[in-house]
Design a protein that fits this description.
Layout lengths: L5 H10 L3 E3 L11 E3 L1 H20 L4 E3 L5 E2 L1 H6 L2 H4 L1 E6 L6 E3 L20 E4 L3 E3 L9 E4 L4 H6 L1 H7 L6 E10 L14 E11 L4 H18 L7 E5 L11 E9 L2 E12 L1 H5 L4 H4 L17 E2 L6 E2 L2 E8 H12 E5 L5 E5 L8 E7 L5 H15 L5 E4 L5 H11 L3 E5 L1 H6 L1 E6 L5 E5 L3 H10 L2
Parallel strand pairs: 3-10, 20-21, 20-22
Antiparallel strand pairs: 1-2, 4-9, 5-6, 5-7, 8-9, 10-11, 11-17, 12-13, 13-14, 14-17, 15-16, 18-19, 22-23, 23-24
Helix pairs in contact: 2-10
């Protein structure tokens, strides 16, 4: 079963070192979280799986890592400066602040008062000064999305790689939004990470690619362990589409707090590349885009036969890393009844996502021979480069098993006195709790097969 409440996940995450409130010793900062020792492993494993599927397993996608600080003209041309704001109201009674579109019947969600201010625009972008003097003129934005830096690098990537349409550019990176009401743990925060692909296609093929990428992304989430029953597909209504979107399909997931977006797949048409391109007449195109007098770039593709320049359409699968982590924690969380009447908590991650792939446990913590055998085996397994392997030298096998069940470790390997006698060790499976003995020399191959096969 998935977690019953968000509180269960929050408590486990803090107790076991997955996620902490940022700056907690000073009271914390709302909407900001820090990933602990296990959390960063889970997060990195999710990003690694995404990057592998998007870049390594395809021949039509390249990756980049662009800067966070963004030139104001980029976000002016993209429409963010003009449209990236929410209507904001303040409650005069309880002093809380809310988005106007989140109010029900014109009342404050906190105290139910209708003594509210008039809505006013609230810019969601963080701004910072650039250079030694803060004169108000030299500034940049912390990017509100990773997409725009992909678009402004379109020509750089196209000129330096042997690609023609269709092809894509992938990026994983931080983005920043000055959310009015951050909420629901790491679901809606002010500093977050995105996994985005901008896939460039010819006009007229965009609807085909939109459907194809939706199907591919759904299948990928299922492969990460997301239950199909927790997924719904939402065709975003036309009156709710972003300013750049022709059509958007949201992959909705049942988080502990409700059904919300896990990933969006948008048909951004030629809006972005057109907005960042120099005048339309110079490109000999008819796209309905804003003439850009600031950029000197021609963000278009020339047909090899007709020599005609065309701005590609863009299909954008965009997923939040933090929301992905939250969904995976929710899916993996299980509380099981044992035969002795007790319970055990398990995070049943897919092995390739598990923060720790195996724990090697010496039966006696003070026995130098057992501890050395455990350390040697750990080194052999670590050389497989499949993820983190640890020596759990606690001296209490039962507690070690329960701890590694709760943090999602697929395999526990116990080094005991029989290991000294016949060179074998006990291997315990997290999901079945079944145990069997195996020769030490065969354990690395067994370990690799069990982690790689899943």
């Amino acid at each position: 079963m998935t977690a019953k409440t968000m509180e269960e996940l929050v408590a486990l995450c803090k107790r076991r070192g997955f996620i902490f409130q940022s700056n907690e010793i000073y009271g914390g900062l709302q909407g900001l979280y820090d990933y602990g020792p296990l959390g960063i492993e889970l997060k990195n494993n999710l990003k690694k799986a995404w990057w592998s599927s998007m870049v390594y397993e395809r021949d039509d996608v390249e990756g980049i890592d662009a800067s966070i600080l963004t030139h104001p003209k980029v976000l002016k041309q993209s429409g963010h400066e003009d449209t990236f704001s929410d209507p904001l109201v303040d409650c005069r009674d309880c002093k809380s602040r809310w988005r106007a579109d989140h109010l029900k019947e014109g009342k404050c969600p906190s105290c139910q008062s209708d003594n509210l201010t008039d809505p006013r625009p609230f810019n969601l972008m963080f701004k910072t000064s650039v250079g030694p003097i803060d004169d108000g003129n030299s500034f940049a934005y912390l990017r509100p999305e990773t997409a725009q830096q992909i678009f402004v690098n379109f020509k750089n990537v196209l000129d330096s790689t042997p690609h023609h349409l269709p092809f894509g550019i992938a990026q994983i990176g931080k983005a920043f939004r000055n959310e009015i009401t951050p909420r629901n743990f790491i679901f809606r925060v002010r500093e977050f990470e995105q996994m985005e692909l901008e896939f460039f296609v010819e006009e007229g093929t965009d609807e085909h690619w939109h459907k194809l990428w939706t199907d591919l992304r759904l299948q990928w989430w299922f492969e990460q362990g997301v239950n199909k029953e927790n997924i719904e597909i939402l065709n975003v209504p036309s009156d709710e589409l972003a300013h750049y979107s022709k059509a958007t399909i949201d992959i909705m997931y049942r988080f502990p707090h409700g059904l919300e977006e896990l990933e969006g797949i948008a048909n951004r048409t030629d809006f972005d590349l057109g907005s960042h391109s120099k005048g339309q007449s110079e490109l000999n195109i008819t796209a309905n885009v804003t003439k850009n007098k600031s950029s000197n770039s021609k963000l278009a593709v020339q047909n090899r036969e007709t020599k005609e320049w065309k701005i590609p359409y863009v299909i954008e699968p965009s997923a939040g890393v933090d929301r992905g982590v939250l969904a995976l924690l929710n899916e993996a969380y299980k509380v099981e009844k044992l035969e002795n009447g007790k319970e055990r908590t398990v995070l049943a991650f897919k092995p390739h996502l598990a923060p720790i792939k195996a724990a090697v446990i010496p039966l006696k913590r003070n026995n130098e021979q057992l501890v050395k055998l455990a350390a040697d085996l750990k080194s052999l397994l670590q050389k497989k480069k499949l993820g983190r392997v640890v020596v759990e030298n606690s001296g209490n096998i039962g507690k070690s098993y329960r701890r590694h069940d709760e943090i999602g470790t697929p395999l526990c390997i116990t080094i005991d006195f029989e290991t000294i006698e016949n060179n074998t060790a006990t291997i315990r499976n997290r999901d079945t709790m079944q145990q069997h003995r195996l020769k030490l020399e065969n354990i690395p191959e067994f370990f690799a097969a069990n982690i790689e096969a899943n």
